[in-house]
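Justification of resources, computational component.

The compute hours requested in this renewal are based largely on the per-chain cost of generating structure records like the one below. Each record pairs the submitted sequence with a full structure-token output. That output is archived, and it is also reused by downstream analysis tasks.
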Amino acid sequence: MLVLLLAISSTGIAMSFYLGADVISVKSFFIGLFTFDIQYIPPDPILISHLIMVAFLMIIFPYSKLLHAPGLFFSPSRNQVDNAREKRHISKWAADLEK
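The structure output for this chain reads:
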């Protein structure tokens, strides 16, 4: 996973600083994808490898450990009240037993 992230960033840096990708044709390709007017992708090997790696990252992202970070906000222990010393929490079945 780390190698994939490093490869994506290195191809992105290489495209922006060393090997110029045709930004206008890339933009027309992606606008064509959104408007269902398919345009040709520029035949730049670095751009194509960059896009393939990004697509592969999007495929494996839900199954990787990178998705554990947003799961922190959905954790039950973060959403529950921490007032155990102020109030006694008794479940319904335990309250019936105490009566």
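The radius of gyration is 25 Å. Helices lie at 2-18, 23-34, 45-60, 68-71, 76-79, 92-98.
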